[in-house]
Amino acid sequence: MTTLKKSTHNTFSGAPMEKHDIIVIGAGLAGLRAAIEAKNKGADVAVLTKLHPVRSHSDQAQGGINAALGKDDSWEKHAFDTIKGSDYLADQDAVEVMCKDAPRAIIELEHWGALFSRTDDGRIAQRPFGGAGFPRTCYAADKTGHVLQHTMFEQAVKNGVRIYEEWFATSLVIVDNVCKGVTAIEILTGQMHGLQAKAVILAAGGAGQVYGKTTNSLTTTGECITMAYRAGVPIEDMEFMQFHPTTLLGSNILVTEGARGEGGYLVNAEGERFMQRYAPDRMELAPRDIVSRSIETEIKEGRGFKGGYVHLDLRHLGEEKINERLPTIRELAIYFAGVDPIKEPIPIQPAQHYTMGGVPTDTDGATLAKGLFAAGECACVSVHGANRLGGNSLLDTVVFGRRAGAKAAEYAKKTAEASFPSDAVKREEEKIDQMLKGKEGEKSTELKRALGEVMVEKVGIFREKATLESAMKDVQLLKRRLANVSVEDSSRTFNTSLIEALESSFALDLAEVIIAGALARKESRGAHSRMDFPKRDDDKWLKHTLATFTPKGPKLSYKPVTITRFKPEARGY
Protein backbone atom coordinates (compact mmCIF):
# COMPACT_ATOMS: atom_id res chain seq x y z
CA MET A 1 0.00 0.00 0.00
CA THR A 2 1.44 3.38 -0.99
CA THR A 3 -0.51 5.56 1.45
CA LEU A 4 1.90 6.35 4.27
CA LYS A 5 1.60 8.22 7.54
CA LYS A 6 5.31 8.49 8.14
CA SER A 7 8.12 9.39 5.80
CA THR A 8 11.90 9.36 5.75
CA HIS A 9 13.05 12.91 6.37
CA ASN A 10 15.98 15.13 7.16
CA THR A 11 15.96 17.61 10.03
CA PHE A 12 16.15 21.24 9.01
CA SER A 13 16.40 23.99 11.65
CA GLY A 14 14.91 21.65 14.22
CA ALA A 15 11.88 20.69 12.09
CA PRO A 16 11.37 17.63 9.90
CA MET A 17 12.11 18.29 6.23
CA GLU A 18 10.79 16.30 3.27
CA LYS A 19 12.06 16.63 -0.32
CA HIS A 20 10.34 15.77 -3.59
CA ASP A 21 10.45 17.03 -7.14
CA ILE A 22 6.73 17.84 -7.02
CA ILE A 23 4.25 18.24 -4.17
CA VAL A 24 0.55 18.05 -5.07
CA ILE A 25 -1.84 19.53 -2.49
CA GLY A 26 -5.18 17.75 -2.69
CA ALA A 27 -6.14 14.18 -3.57
CA GLY A 28 -9.34 14.67 -5.52
CA LEU A 29 -9.61 14.04 -9.24
CA ALA A 30 -7.43 17.00 -10.27
CA GLY A 31 -4.70 16.26 -7.72
CA LEU A 32 -4.49 12.54 -8.40
CA ARG A 33 -4.61 13.02 -12.17
CA ALA A 34 -1.76 15.54 -11.92
CA ALA A 35 0.25 13.21 -9.69
CA ILE A 36 -0.22 10.20 -11.98
CA GLU A 37 0.92 12.20 -15.00
CA ALA A 38 3.94 13.67 -13.22
CA LYS A 39 4.94 10.24 -11.89
CA ASN A 40 4.68 8.75 -15.37
CA LYS A 41 6.92 11.55 -16.67
CA GLY A 42 9.63 10.43 -14.27
CA ALA A 43 9.20 12.93 -11.45
CA ASP A 44 9.47 12.12 -7.74
CA VAL A 45 5.95 13.21 -6.82
CA ALA A 46 4.00 13.16 -3.57
CA VAL A 47 0.39 14.07 -2.77
CA LEU A 48 -0.41 15.89 0.46
CA THR A 49 -4.03 15.56 1.61
CA LYS A 50 -5.86 16.37 4.82
CA LEU A 51 -8.09 13.28 4.49
CA HIS A 52 -8.08 9.88 2.80
CA PRO A 53 -8.19 10.33 -1.01
CA VAL A 54 -11.52 8.55 -1.54
CA ARG A 55 -13.13 10.96 0.93
CA SER A 56 -12.20 13.91 -1.28
CA HIS A 57 -15.06 16.12 -2.40
CA SER A 58 -14.71 14.90 -6.01
CA ASP A 59 -16.37 11.73 -4.72
CA GLN A 60 -19.59 13.69 -4.15
CA ALA A 61 -20.16 14.71 -7.79
CA GLN A 62 -23.33 13.01 -8.96
CA GLY A 63 -24.58 13.90 -12.42
CA GLY A 64 -21.82 13.31 -14.95
CA ILE A 65 -18.90 14.48 -17.08
CA ASN A 66 -19.23 16.18 -20.48
CA ALA A 67 -17.75 15.10 -23.81
CA ALA A 68 -18.93 15.43 -27.40
CA LEU A 69 -19.19 11.71 -28.23
CA GLY A 70 -22.41 11.71 -30.25
CA LYS A 71 -22.34 11.65 -34.05
CA ASP A 72 -24.30 14.94 -34.27
CA ASP A 73 -22.24 16.62 -31.54
CA SER A 74 -18.78 18.23 -31.80
CA TRP A 75 -16.18 19.91 -29.66
CA GLU A 76 -17.14 23.22 -31.30
CA LYS A 77 -20.75 22.85 -30.14
CA HIS A 78 -19.56 21.87 -26.68
CA ALA A 79 -17.30 24.93 -26.63
CA PHE A 80 -20.10 27.27 -27.72
CA ASP A 81 -22.46 25.96 -25.03
CA THR A 82 -19.70 26.37 -22.42
CA ILE A 83 -18.86 29.93 -23.47
CA LYS A 84 -22.50 31.00 -23.73
CA GLY A 85 -23.16 29.37 -20.36
CA SER A 86 -20.24 31.31 -18.87
CA ASP A 87 -21.99 34.55 -19.92
CA TYR A 88 -18.98 35.10 -22.19
CA LEU A 89 -16.46 35.48 -19.35
CA ALA A 90 -14.67 32.17 -20.06
CA ASP A 91 -11.33 32.36 -21.87
CA GLN A 92 -12.12 30.80 -25.20
CA ASP A 93 -8.67 29.37 -25.89
CA ALA A 94 -8.88 27.41 -22.63
CA VAL A 95 -12.42 26.23 -23.40
CA GLU A 96 -11.21 24.96 -26.78
CA VAL A 97 -8.43 22.94 -25.12
CA MET A 98 -10.89 21.37 -22.68
CA CYS A 99 -13.60 20.51 -25.20
CA LYS A 100 -11.18 19.09 -27.77
CA ASP A 101 -9.59 16.83 -25.14
CA ALA A 102 -12.87 15.66 -23.60
CA PRO A 103 -13.44 12.49 -25.71
CA ARG A 104 -9.86 11.32 -25.09
CA ALA A 105 -10.29 11.88 -21.36
CA ILE A 106 -13.50 9.84 -21.24
CA ILE A 107 -11.94 6.95 -23.17
CA GLU A 108 -8.92 7.04 -20.84
CA LEU A 109 -11.18 6.82 -17.78
CA GLU A 110 -13.11 3.96 -19.34
CA HIS A 111 -9.89 2.07 -20.11
CA TRP A 112 -8.80 2.60 -16.51
CA GLY A 113 -11.96 0.85 -15.36
CA ALA A 114 -14.59 3.57 -14.82
CA LEU A 115 -17.99 1.86 -15.02
CA PHE A 116 -20.08 4.33 -17.00
CA SER A 117 -23.77 3.65 -17.52
CA ARG A 118 -24.49 2.15 -20.95
CA THR A 119 -27.06 2.35 -23.70
CA ASP A 120 -28.80 -0.80 -24.92
CA ASP A 121 -26.21 -1.18 -27.71
CA GLY A 122 -23.29 -0.94 -25.26
CA ARG A 123 -22.20 2.66 -25.80
CA ILE A 124 -21.44 5.08 -22.96
CA ALA A 125 -24.79 6.60 -22.00
CA GLN A 126 -25.21 10.39 -22.12
CA ARG A 127 -27.97 12.51 -20.57
CA PRO A 128 -29.09 16.12 -21.16
CA PHE A 129 -27.77 18.78 -18.80
CA GLY A 130 -28.60 22.45 -18.35
CA GLY A 131 -27.37 24.83 -21.05
CA ALA A 132 -26.25 22.04 -23.39
CA GLY A 133 -27.50 21.72 -26.95
CA PHE A 134 -26.94 17.95 -26.97
CA PRO A 135 -27.11 15.09 -24.45
CA ARG A 136 -23.34 15.00 -23.86
CA THR A 137 -23.08 14.24 -20.13
CA CYS A 138 -21.58 10.77 -19.59
CA TYR A 139 -22.64 9.31 -16.26
CA ALA A 140 -22.51 6.40 -13.86
CA ALA A 141 -26.09 6.42 -12.56
CA ASP A 142 -26.06 9.34 -10.07
CA LYS A 143 -22.69 8.59 -8.49
CA THR A 144 -20.29 9.60 -11.26
CA GLY A 145 -17.79 11.35 -9.00
CA HIS A 146 -17.65 8.34 -6.69
CA VAL A 147 -16.88 6.01 -9.61
CA LEU A 148 -14.24 8.29 -11.12
CA GLN A 149 -12.56 9.08 -7.78
CA HIS A 150 -12.15 5.39 -6.93
CA THR A 151 -10.89 4.67 -10.44
CA MET A 152 -8.33 7.47 -10.15
CA PHE A 153 -7.17 6.37 -6.72
CA GLU A 154 -6.64 2.85 -8.03
CA GLN A 155 -4.41 4.27 -10.76
CA ALA A 156 -2.45 6.34 -8.23
CA VAL A 157 -1.81 3.23 -6.13
CA LYS A 158 -0.93 1.20 -9.23
CA ASN A 159 1.61 3.85 -10.29
CA GLY A 160 3.19 4.09 -6.85
CA VAL A 161 2.22 7.68 -6.09
CA ARG A 162 3.41 8.68 -2.60
CA ILE A 163 0.58 10.02 -0.42
CA TYR A 164 0.96 12.02 2.79
CA GLU A 165 -2.45 11.21 4.21
CA GLU A 166 -3.97 13.48 6.89
CA TRP A 167 -1.46 16.28 6.45
CA PHE A 168 -2.69 19.86 6.37
CA ALA A 169 -0.87 22.48 4.29
CA THR A 170 -0.56 25.84 6.06
CA SER A 171 1.48 28.00 3.67
CA LEU A 172 3.25 28.18 0.35
CA VAL A 173 6.93 29.01 0.50
CA ILE A 174 7.56 31.52 -2.30
CA VAL A 175 10.77 33.54 -2.47
CA ASP A 176 11.34 36.17 -5.19
CA ASN A 177 8.28 34.78 -7.02
CA VAL A 178 9.72 31.25 -7.09
CA CYS A 179 7.90 28.47 -5.25
CA LYS A 180 10.22 26.41 -3.00
CA GLY A 181 7.66 24.14 -1.34
CA VAL A 182 5.07 24.19 1.44
CA THR A 183 4.72 23.98 5.18
CA ALA A 184 2.27 21.46 6.62
CA ILE A 185 1.05 19.91 9.84
CA GLU A 186 1.13 16.15 10.18
CA ILE A 187 -2.29 15.87 11.82
CA LEU A 188 -1.57 12.58 13.61
CA THR A 189 1.36 14.01 15.58
CA GLY A 190 0.81 17.78 15.35
CA GLN A 191 4.35 18.17 14.03
CA MET A 192 4.97 21.08 11.64
CA HIS A 193 7.00 20.07 8.57
CA GLY A 194 8.71 21.74 5.68
CA LEU A 195 8.22 20.04 2.31
CA GLN A 196 10.76 21.22 -0.22
CA ALA A 197 9.89 20.84 -3.89
CA LYS A 198 10.94 22.11 -7.29
CA ALA A 199 7.24 22.48 -8.16
CA VAL A 200 3.95 22.58 -6.25
CA ILE A 201 0.55 21.81 -7.76
CA LEU A 202 -2.48 23.26 -5.96
CA ALA A 203 -5.51 20.98 -6.33
CA ALA A 204 -7.49 21.04 -3.08
CA GLY A 205 -10.83 22.22 -4.49
CA GLY A 206 -13.10 25.19 -3.92
CA ALA A 207 -14.30 27.35 -1.05
CA GLY A 208 -17.90 26.30 -0.46
CA GLN A 209 -17.59 26.35 3.34
CA VAL A 210 -17.35 30.15 3.20
CA TYR A 211 -21.16 29.90 2.92
CA GLY A 212 -23.41 28.54 5.63
CA LYS A 213 -25.61 26.79 3.07
CA THR A 214 -23.55 24.74 0.63
CA THR A 215 -23.51 21.38 -1.10
CA ASN A 216 -19.77 21.18 -0.41
CA SER A 217 -18.22 18.84 2.14
CA LEU A 218 -16.81 20.24 5.38
CA THR A 219 -13.29 20.02 3.95
CA THR A 220 -13.79 22.51 1.07
CA THR A 221 -12.47 25.58 2.85
CA GLY A 222 -10.43 27.12 0.03
CA GLU A 223 -6.99 26.87 1.63
CA CYS A 224 -5.15 26.41 -1.68
CA ILE A 225 -6.64 29.64 -3.03
CA THR A 226 -5.91 31.51 0.20
CA MET A 227 -2.33 30.21 0.46
CA ALA A 228 -1.59 31.51 -3.03
CA TYR A 229 -3.27 34.84 -2.22
CA ARG A 230 -1.32 35.27 1.02
CA ALA A 231 1.92 34.41 -0.79
CA GLY A 232 1.41 37.30 -3.21
CA VAL A 233 -0.15 35.45 -6.15
CA PRO A 234 -3.26 37.30 -7.41
CA ILE A 235 -6.50 35.30 -7.42
CA GLU A 236 -9.13 35.64 -10.12
CA ASP A 237 -12.92 36.16 -10.38
CA MET A 238 -13.75 35.21 -6.81
CA GLU A 239 -17.05 37.13 -6.92
CA PHE A 240 -18.48 34.39 -9.14
CA MET A 241 -19.95 31.77 -6.81
CA GLN A 242 -22.33 29.22 -8.30
CA PHE A 243 -25.54 28.32 -6.50
CA HIS A 244 -26.96 24.92 -7.37
CA PRO A 245 -30.72 25.11 -7.92
CA THR A 246 -31.65 21.83 -6.25
CA THR A 247 -30.41 20.93 -2.78
CA LEU A 248 -32.39 19.13 -0.08
CA LEU A 249 -34.27 21.44 2.24
CA GLY A 250 -32.58 21.58 5.65
CA SER A 251 -29.35 19.74 4.87
CA ASN A 252 -28.49 21.31 1.47
CA ILE A 253 -27.28 17.92 0.23
CA LEU A 254 -26.94 18.02 -3.54
CA VAL A 255 -29.75 16.72 -5.74
CA THR A 256 -28.04 16.19 -9.07
CA GLU A 257 -28.90 18.14 -12.20
CA GLY A 258 -29.25 14.67 -13.65
CA ALA A 259 -32.66 14.51 -11.94
CA ARG A 260 -33.83 17.30 -14.25
CA GLY A 261 -31.83 15.80 -17.11
CA GLU A 262 -33.90 12.64 -16.74
CA GLY A 263 -37.09 14.71 -16.94
CA GLY A 264 -37.80 16.05 -13.44
CA TYR A 265 -40.11 19.07 -13.04
CA LEU A 266 -39.72 22.13 -10.84
CA VAL A 267 -43.09 23.05 -9.30
CA ASN A 268 -44.10 25.94 -7.04
CA ALA A 269 -46.71 25.99 -4.26
CA GLU A 270 -49.40 26.75 -6.83
CA GLY A 271 -48.63 23.52 -8.71
CA GLU A 272 -47.09 25.42 -11.63
CA ARG A 273 -44.01 24.47 -13.66
CA PHE A 274 -42.71 27.98 -13.21
CA MET A 275 -39.61 27.73 -15.44
CA GLN A 276 -41.95 28.52 -18.34
CA ARG A 277 -41.74 32.13 -17.13
CA TYR A 278 -37.95 32.33 -17.13
CA ALA A 279 -36.58 29.95 -19.78
CA PRO A 280 -39.47 28.84 -22.03
CA ASP A 281 -37.27 26.88 -24.44
CA ARG A 282 -35.04 25.00 -21.98
CA MET A 283 -37.35 25.01 -18.95
CA GLU A 284 -35.68 23.03 -16.11
CA LEU A 285 -32.57 22.54 -18.27
CA ALA A 286 -31.59 26.18 -18.43
CA PRO A 287 -28.12 26.93 -16.96
CA ARG A 288 -27.77 26.81 -13.20
CA ASP A 289 -27.55 30.56 -12.61
CA ILE A 290 -30.88 31.11 -14.37
CA VAL A 291 -32.65 28.22 -12.62
CA SER A 292 -31.34 29.29 -9.20
CA ARG A 293 -32.50 32.87 -9.68
CA SER A 294 -35.86 31.62 -10.91
CA ILE A 295 -36.39 29.47 -7.81
CA GLU A 296 -35.28 32.28 -5.52
CA THR A 297 -37.65 34.69 -7.28
CA GLU A 298 -40.58 32.28 -6.85
CA ILE A 299 -39.81 32.03 -3.14
CA LYS A 300 -39.34 35.78 -2.63
CA GLU A 301 -42.54 36.61 -4.50
CA GLY A 302 -44.59 34.24 -2.36
CA ARG A 303 -45.10 31.34 -4.73
CA GLY A 304 -42.80 29.01 -2.83
CA PHE A 305 -43.77 26.78 0.08
CA LYS A 306 -43.67 28.06 3.64
CA GLY A 307 -40.09 27.61 4.81
CA GLY A 308 -38.50 28.83 1.56
CA TYR A 309 -38.52 26.00 -0.97
CA VAL A 310 -40.14 24.58 -4.10
CA HIS A 311 -40.66 21.03 -5.28
CA LEU A 312 -38.62 18.81 -7.59
CA ASP A 313 -41.12 16.27 -8.89
CA LEU A 314 -39.83 12.95 -10.24
CA ARG A 315 -42.95 10.84 -9.74
CA HIS A 316 -43.86 10.78 -13.43
CA LEU A 317 -40.48 9.13 -14.25
CA GLY A 318 -41.66 5.92 -12.62
CA GLU A 319 -40.10 3.57 -10.08
CA GLU A 320 -37.96 1.64 -12.57
CA LYS A 321 -36.25 4.70 -14.05
CA ILE A 322 -35.69 6.35 -10.68
CA ASN A 323 -34.10 3.19 -9.27
CA GLU A 324 -31.91 2.71 -12.35
CA ARG A 325 -30.81 6.29 -13.05
CA LEU A 326 -31.23 8.09 -9.71
CA PRO A 327 -30.84 5.52 -6.90
CA THR A 328 -28.67 7.74 -4.72
CA ILE A 329 -31.08 10.66 -4.98
CA ARG A 330 -33.94 8.44 -3.87
CA GLU A 331 -31.89 7.18 -0.93
CA LEU A 332 -30.82 10.69 0.11
CA ALA A 333 -34.37 12.03 -0.15
CA ILE A 334 -35.71 9.21 2.03
CA TYR A 335 -33.02 9.48 4.71
CA PHE A 336 -32.49 13.25 4.86
CA ALA A 337 -35.83 14.74 3.77
CA GLY A 338 -38.23 11.97 4.75
CA VAL A 339 -39.77 11.70 1.28
CA ASP A 340 -39.72 8.92 -1.30
CA PRO A 341 -39.45 10.53 -4.75
CA ILE A 342 -41.36 7.63 -6.28
CA LYS A 343 -44.40 8.68 -4.23
CA GLU A 344 -43.98 12.40 -3.46
CA PRO A 345 -42.01 15.46 -4.66
CA ILE A 346 -38.68 16.47 -3.11
CA PRO A 347 -38.46 19.80 -1.21
CA ILE A 348 -35.49 21.72 -2.63
CA GLN A 349 -33.83 25.14 -2.44
CA PRO A 350 -30.68 26.68 -3.98
CA ALA A 351 -27.36 26.64 -2.10
CA GLN A 352 -23.73 27.48 -2.85
CA HIS A 353 -22.17 24.78 -4.99
CA TYR A 354 -19.06 25.78 -6.96
CA THR A 355 -16.23 28.33 -6.97
CA MET A 356 -15.77 29.66 -10.51
CA GLY A 357 -12.78 31.78 -9.53
CA GLY A 358 -9.44 30.71 -8.10
CA VAL A 359 -5.71 30.84 -8.79
CA PRO A 360 -5.24 32.04 -12.39
CA THR A 361 -3.36 29.63 -14.66
CA ASP A 362 -2.57 29.11 -18.30
CA THR A 363 -3.82 25.99 -20.09
CA ASP A 364 -0.87 24.00 -18.68
CA GLY A 365 -1.68 24.88 -15.09
CA ALA A 366 1.20 27.37 -14.67
CA THR A 367 0.47 30.31 -12.37
CA LEU A 368 2.07 33.73 -12.09
CA ALA A 369 4.71 32.32 -9.70
CA LYS A 370 7.48 30.11 -11.09
CA GLY A 371 7.20 26.50 -10.01
CA LEU A 372 3.60 26.93 -8.81
CA PHE A 373 0.81 25.18 -10.72
CA ALA A 374 -2.90 24.67 -10.08
CA ALA A 375 -5.73 22.52 -11.41
CA GLY A 376 -9.37 21.79 -10.66
CA GLU A 377 -11.77 23.97 -8.72
CA CYS A 378 -9.06 25.94 -6.90
CA ALA A 379 -7.68 27.05 -10.28
CA CYS A 380 -9.13 29.56 -12.72
CA VAL A 381 -8.10 28.65 -16.28
CA SER A 382 -10.82 30.18 -16.98
CA VAL A 383 -13.19 27.69 -18.60
CA HIS A 384 -16.25 28.44 -16.46
CA GLY A 385 -16.27 32.24 -16.54
CA ALA A 386 -19.27 33.67 -14.68
CA ASN A 387 -21.28 30.42 -14.62
CA ARG A 388 -20.22 26.78 -14.94
CA LEU A 389 -22.26 24.31 -16.93
CA GLY A 390 -23.05 21.06 -15.14
CA GLY A 391 -20.79 18.22 -16.28
CA ASN A 392 -17.84 20.51 -17.00
CA SER A 393 -16.30 20.44 -13.52
CA LEU A 394 -15.25 16.78 -13.60
CA LEU A 395 -13.98 17.34 -17.13
CA ASP A 396 -11.96 20.34 -15.95
CA THR A 397 -10.25 18.23 -13.27
CA VAL A 398 -9.09 15.41 -15.52
CA VAL A 399 -8.12 17.54 -18.54
CA PHE A 400 -6.20 20.25 -16.68
CA GLY A 401 -4.98 17.94 -13.91
CA ARG A 402 -3.21 15.90 -16.58
CA ARG A 403 -1.77 19.00 -18.27
CA ALA A 404 -0.59 20.52 -14.97
CA GLY A 405 1.13 17.26 -13.99
CA ALA A 406 2.94 17.06 -17.31
CA LYS A 407 4.08 20.68 -17.24
CA ALA A 408 5.17 20.53 -13.60
CA ALA A 409 7.26 17.43 -14.37
CA GLU A 410 8.87 19.20 -17.33
CA TYR A 411 9.62 22.23 -15.14
CA ALA A 412 11.06 20.11 -12.31
CA LYS A 413 13.29 18.18 -14.70
CA LYS A 414 15.09 21.32 -15.85
CA THR A 415 15.12 23.07 -12.46
CA ALA A 416 17.96 22.67 -9.98
CA GLU A 417 17.17 22.02 -6.34
CA ALA A 418 16.92 25.33 -4.49
CA SER A 419 17.32 26.10 -0.83
CA PHE A 420 14.30 26.11 1.47
CA PRO A 421 14.11 29.23 3.72
CA SER A 422 15.29 28.34 7.19
CA ASP A 423 12.59 30.41 8.92
CA ALA A 424 9.56 29.19 6.92
CA VAL A 425 8.59 26.44 9.33
CA LYS A 426 9.44 28.55 12.37
CA ARG A 427 7.02 31.31 11.31
CA GLU A 428 4.18 28.82 10.95
CA GLU A 429 5.04 27.14 14.23
CA GLU A 430 4.86 30.49 16.04
CA LYS A 431 1.35 31.08 14.65
CA ILE A 432 0.22 27.67 15.88
CA ASP A 433 1.75 28.21 19.31
CA GLN A 434 -0.14 31.49 19.67
CA MET A 435 -3.45 29.81 18.84
CA LEU A 436 -2.81 27.01 21.35
CA LYS A 437 -1.75 29.27 24.23
CA GLY A 438 -5.00 30.58 25.65
CA LYS A 439 -8.41 29.05 26.29
CA GLU A 440 -10.39 32.24 26.95
CA GLY A 441 -10.37 33.73 23.45
CA GLU A 442 -12.73 33.51 20.49
CA LYS A 443 -13.91 30.09 19.31
CA SER A 444 -13.31 29.47 15.60
CA THR A 445 -16.56 27.51 15.28
CA GLU A 446 -18.52 30.62 16.25
CA LEU A 447 -16.61 32.75 13.73
CA LYS A 448 -17.27 30.21 10.98
CA ARG A 449 -20.99 30.06 11.83
CA ALA A 450 -21.25 33.85 11.78
CA LEU A 451 -19.35 34.08 8.48
CA GLY A 452 -21.64 31.49 6.89
CA GLU A 453 -24.73 33.46 7.89
CA VAL A 454 -23.32 36.73 6.55
CA MET A 455 -22.47 35.21 3.18
CA VAL A 456 -25.84 33.51 2.75
CA GLU A 457 -27.87 36.55 3.78
CA LYS A 458 -25.84 39.31 2.13
CA VAL A 459 -23.66 37.80 -0.64
CA GLY A 460 -26.05 35.25 -2.08
CA ILE A 461 -27.92 34.79 -5.35
CA PHE A 462 -29.11 38.42 -5.44
CA ARG A 463 -26.74 41.21 -4.40
CA GLU A 464 -26.80 44.98 -4.02
CA LYS A 465 -24.49 47.70 -2.79
CA ALA A 466 -25.96 48.26 0.68
CA THR A 467 -25.98 44.59 1.71
CA LEU A 468 -22.53 43.98 0.21
CA GLU A 469 -21.10 46.94 2.14
CA SER A 470 -22.74 45.62 5.30
CA ALA A 471 -21.26 42.18 4.62
CA MET A 472 -17.80 43.69 4.21
CA LYS A 473 -18.05 45.38 7.60
CA ASP A 474 -19.20 42.13 9.16
CA VAL A 475 -16.33 40.13 7.66
CA GLN A 476 -13.72 42.72 8.65
CA LEU A 477 -15.06 42.59 12.21
CA LEU A 478 -14.81 38.80 12.17
CA LYS A 479 -11.23 39.08 10.94
CA ARG A 480 -10.38 41.34 13.87
CA ARG A 481 -11.98 38.81 16.21
CA LEU A 482 -9.91 36.10 14.52
CA ALA A 483 -6.79 37.62 16.08
CA ASN A 484 -8.12 36.50 19.47
CA VAL A 485 -8.96 32.93 18.48
CA SER A 486 -7.78 30.27 20.87
CA VAL A 487 -8.04 26.52 20.54
CA GLU A 488 -9.55 24.84 23.56
CA ASP A 489 -7.68 21.60 22.87
CA SER A 490 -4.02 22.41 23.54
CA SER A 491 -2.69 18.98 22.62
CA ARG A 492 -0.81 18.25 19.42
CA THR A 493 -2.16 14.78 18.63
CA PHE A 494 -4.94 14.80 16.03
CA ASN A 495 -6.10 18.27 17.05
CA THR A 496 -9.07 18.78 14.74
CA SER A 497 -10.01 21.97 16.60
CA LEU A 498 -6.70 23.50 15.49
CA ILE A 499 -7.33 22.48 11.88
CA GLU A 500 -10.82 24.01 12.02
CA ALA A 501 -9.38 27.26 13.35
CA LEU A 502 -6.86 27.42 10.51
CA GLU A 503 -9.61 26.67 7.99
CA SER A 504 -11.71 29.53 9.40
CA SER A 505 -8.78 31.86 8.91
CA PHE A 506 -8.46 30.85 5.25
CA ALA A 507 -12.21 31.24 4.70
CA LEU A 508 -12.35 34.75 6.16
CA ASP A 509 -9.63 36.00 3.82
CA LEU A 510 -11.51 34.59 0.84
CA ALA A 511 -14.83 36.05 1.96
CA GLU A 512 -13.25 39.51 1.95
CA VAL A 513 -12.06 38.99 -1.63
CA ILE A 514 -15.46 37.67 -2.78
CA ILE A 515 -17.25 40.72 -1.38
CA ALA A 516 -14.69 43.21 -2.71
CA GLY A 517 -15.03 41.79 -6.22
CA ALA A 518 -18.82 41.74 -6.00
CA LEU A 519 -18.96 45.36 -4.84
CA ALA A 520 -16.67 46.54 -7.60
CA ARG A 521 -18.42 44.67 -10.44
CA LYS A 522 -21.31 46.98 -11.28
CA GLU A 523 -23.18 44.65 -13.60
CA SER A 524 -25.02 41.33 -13.57
CA ARG A 525 -23.23 38.46 -15.29
CA GLY A 526 -23.77 34.73 -14.76
CA ALA A 527 -23.93 33.84 -11.08
CA HIS A 528 -23.18 37.44 -10.04
CA SER A 529 -26.58 39.17 -10.00
CA ARG A 530 -26.65 42.82 -8.86
CA MET A 531 -30.18 44.10 -8.20
CA ASP A 532 -28.90 47.67 -8.60
CA PHE A 533 -27.11 46.84 -11.88
CA PRO A 534 -29.40 44.24 -13.50
CA LYS A 535 -27.86 44.26 -17.00
CA ARG A 536 -24.66 42.75 -18.35
CA ASP A 537 -22.22 45.49 -19.36
CA ASP A 538 -19.70 44.26 -21.92
CA ASP A 539 -18.33 47.75 -22.56
CA LYS A 540 -17.10 48.15 -18.97
CA TRP A 541 -17.05 44.67 -17.46
CA LEU A 542 -16.04 42.10 -20.05
CA LYS A 543 -12.90 41.48 -17.99
CA HIS A 544 -11.54 39.27 -15.24
CA THR A 545 -11.07 40.51 -11.68
CA LEU A 546 -7.66 40.00 -10.04
CA ALA A 547 -7.29 40.41 -6.27
CA THR A 548 -3.83 40.88 -4.74
CA PHE A 549 -3.18 40.61 -1.01
CA THR A 550 -2.25 43.73 0.96
CA PRO A 551 -2.24 44.17 4.75
CA LYS A 552 -5.24 46.51 4.37
CA GLY A 553 -7.25 44.10 2.26
CA PRO A 554 -7.49 42.98 -1.37
CA LYS A 555 -6.24 45.29 -4.11
CA LEU A 556 -8.26 44.81 -7.30
CA SER A 557 -7.04 44.97 -10.88
CA TYR A 558 -8.36 43.57 -14.13
CA LYS A 559 -7.30 41.68 -17.25
CA PRO A 560 -9.07 41.08 -20.56
CA VAL A 561 -11.10 38.00 -21.44
CA THR A 562 -9.65 35.94 -24.30
CA ILE A 563 -12.15 36.02 -27.18
CA THR A 564 -11.48 33.85 -30.23
CA ARG A 565 -14.33 32.56 -32.41
CA PHE A 566 -17.47 33.35 -30.37
CA LYS A 567 -18.32 37.03 -30.04
CA PRO A 568 -20.45 37.99 -27.02
CA GLU A 569 -24.17 38.10 -27.73
CA ALA A 570 -27.44 38.17 -25.82
CA ARG A 571 -27.84 35.05 -23.71
CA GLY A 572 -31.29 33.53 -23.98
CA TYR A 573 -32.75 30.09 -23.24
The main β sheet shows up as: 9 strands, mixed
What structural category characterises the helix and strand content?
Answer: alpha/beta
Overall mean pLDDT stands at: 94
Strand residue percentage: 15-25%
Strand segment tally:
23
Cα radius of gyration in angstroms: 23 Å
Low-confidence stretches: 1-13
Query: What coarse outline follows from CA principal-axis ratios?
Result: globular
Number of helices: 15
Output the CATH topology of the domain at 424-554. Answer: Methane Monooxygenase Hydroxylase, Chain G, domain 1
What is the CATH level 1 assignment of the domain at 424-554? Mainly Alpha
CATH architecture of the domain at 424-554: Up-down Bundle
Helix content: 25-40%
Distance between the termini: 50 Å
SSE map:
Layout: E1 3-4, E2 10-12, E3 15-25, H1 29-40, E4 45-49, E5 65-66, H2 75-85, H3 92-111, E6 126-127, E7 137-138, H4 144-158, E8 162-165, E9 167-175, E10 178-186, E11 191-202, H5 223-230, E12 235-236, E13 241-248, H6 258-261, E14 265-267, H7 288-300, E15 310-313, H8 319-325, H9 327-337, E16 346-355, E17 359-360, E18 372-374, E19 379-380, H10 392-413, H11 424-437, H12 444-458, E20 462-463, H13 465-482, H14 496-520, E21 529-530, H15 538-541, E22 543-548, E23 555-560
Parallel strand pairs: 1-8, 3-4, 3-11, 4-8, 11-18, 17-19, 20-21
Antiparallel strand pairs: 2-3, 5-7, 6-7, 9-10, 10-11, 12-22, 13-16, 14-15, 15-16, 22-23
Helix pairs in contact: 1-4, 1-10, 2-3, 3-10, 5-14, 12-13, 12-14, 13-14
